Amino acid sequence: MSMIKRIRDRRDATRRARAIEHALRSANSPSVRNEIIAIAQRHVS
């Protein structure tokens, strides 16, 4: 794996984590939070 690919992958993972955190903070109900968490877990696996 090239160094540039590793840097891009790390940057993308950081952006994704920030977006998930923002979505969790702005979720109105526990069920929406659970859905966000389920979607995030599917993406990681």
Task: Give the topology.
Blueprint: H1 3-26, H2 30-44
Residue share in helix: over 70%
Give me the secondary-structure category.
mainly alpha
Major pleated sheet: none
The number of domains: 1
- In the predicted model, the low-confidence regions spanning at least 5 consecutive residues are none
What is the percentage of strand-forming residues? under 5%
Order of helices and strands: HH
What oligomerization state is this entry in? single chain
Note the overall shape. elongated
Tell me the number of helical segments per DSSP (H or I, 4 or more residues long). 2
Total beta strand runs = 0
Which key phrases capture this entry?
45 residues, mainly alpha
